[in-house]
Amino acid sequence: MQIGIPKEIKAQEDRVGLTPDNVRTLVNNGHTVLIEENAGIGSGFTDEEYVSAGAKIESDPAKIWASQMVIKVKEPLASEYDYFHEDLILFAYFHLAPENELTEALLANKVTAIAYETMVENGALPLLTPMSEVAGRMAIQVGTHYLEKQNGGSGTLISGVPGVAPGHVVVIGGGTVGYNAAKIAVGMGARVTILDVNTGRLGELEDLLNDKVTTLMSNEENIRQVIKDADIVVGSVLVTGRRAPVLVSEDMVKTMKPGSVLVDIAVDQGGNFETTHPTTHQDPIYVKHDVIHYTVANIPGAVPRTSTLALTNATMKYASQIINQGVEAAAKRNETILTGINTYQGYLTHEGVAESQNRTHTPIQDLLK
């Protein structure tokens, strides 16, 4: 099979779909890999390293996209839709729930879109987890940065000092993102509150974090009360394939302290805050109701070396199965790959995406019989 690795074109997105080591594995298995010129440079991988691994460097993105399978990181942008072609297997993050135009382009061109974020294995999301870990940890890093006065914040040191109370970090959602955000915040000495709808998970988090957090049932009233005192609020609630739930209304945001920071990790799926709209690393924040909003849609792209290595450590297992066996055979043998198929031969196959877009869906199992 020929595999194409395009250069990411999203603003300041420097991750890349495969590392040179990944390429070497595929080439040794008899496949051809085309790497767009300088696709890996932002993650610290040179064209020369890819060539040494057996890849071919190509400057024309159209030739990259003409491959049987394209592996990338972020969802294709509108300027890339013209590259779509029938029988293309596209393996990437898509977050299709709020992306009607992208969904339509995939369907019209009969692209098989396999989404990292909807692949489920034993109840977990193996290809979302590594980037969720990065995003959760980054949430506190960027939150504390924007709390600094020169960056528009309240001037609060999240750790406090002897005689001065620490700042308050509120994390909405106790999944992978929430846990990692809380872990970093606790490590920095902050006062941390985590909200989740699962009391069992809240108990686990108390144990994991050595009872250094306060846990609350996530409901409208508890969220309303706790964010009034918060210095940083992290939104981290996702529903696989669907639009993220709006858990913090604009009226709630109005009650937050001036100069506090809101970090919406769920922005890819529409966001947990009513006041959210996507930003980029070039222009990452905006202020609304005196609250700094950090709503970058590809937070892990800020640390592309770490993120690329973490992501490809997880994706390569499934990519190899798809490449070596073909998508249909691989999906039949591995249910995790099956759960990742969002579009197939002109059909929308993911129920969550369909519900979010008010479309009908065809179960992928019906199409692979």
From TrEMBL:
It comes from Aerococcus viridans. Belongs to the AlaDH/PNT family. GO terms for cellular component: plasma membrane. The keyword Nucleotide-binding applies. Its EC number is 1.4.1.1. Pathway: Amino-acid degradation; L-alanine degradation via dehydrogenase pathway; NH(3) and pyruvate from L-alanine: step 1/1. Pfam families: AlaDh_PNT_C (PF01262), AlaDh_PNT_N (PF05222). This is Alanine dehydrogenase. GO terms for molecular function: alanine dehydrogenase activity; nucleotide binding. Substrate binds at residues 15, 74. SUPFAM superfamilies: Formate/glycerate dehydrogenase catalytic domain-like, NAD(P)-binding Rossmann-fold domains. It comes from the Bacteria. It catalyses: L-alanine + NAD(+) + H2O = pyruvate + NH4(+) + NADH + H(+). Residues 147-295 form the Alanine dehydrogenase/pyridine nucleotide transhydrogenase NAD(H)-binding domain. One of its GO terms (biological process) is L-alanine catabolic process. Residues 4-135 form the Alanine dehydrogenase/pyridine nucleotide transhydrogenase N-terminal domain. NAD(+) binds at residues 132, 196, 201, 218, 237-238, 265-268. Keywords: NAD, Nucleotide-binding, Oxidoreductase. The active site is at residues 95, 268. The keyword Transcription does not apply.
